[in-house]
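S2.1 Query sequence (Heat shock protein 23)
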Amino acid sequence: PYFAIAGPLEQQLRQLEKQVGASGASGIASKIGKDGFQVCMDVSHFKPSELTVKVQDNSVLVEGTHEEREDDHGFITRHFIRRYALPEGYEADKVESTLSSDGVLTVKVPKPPALEEKGNERIVQIQRWGP
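Output structure tokens follow.
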């Protein structure tokens, strides 16, 4: 029902990571689709225990932090906070998140029933005036 991360999108996320740099969350893609709101981000530099997703004031906050560790270029410490305002009508208590084995964090919120598409047709109420 939600947008699946497929090979091409995953490759785009990896390319974005190389362009953006090695620190923090990178390769971020967000969209509102027919099934709801979704954000995907590459957090492969973080362990699951180093990530938090929380809802605050109708926004989703994603935070990642890790202490200094060695990588191919020396030592690095990473920390990021990303905030996403939920689209109007979307319910904060419906937020879900998943982490894939290759380090792609997906945060999604289903489309609220009130926003379900009903096509382009609607009945317009006729108001009566006068006696």
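The two ends are 53 Å apart (CA to CA). Strands lie at 26-33, 36-42, 51-56, 59-71, 74-85, 96-99, 104-110.
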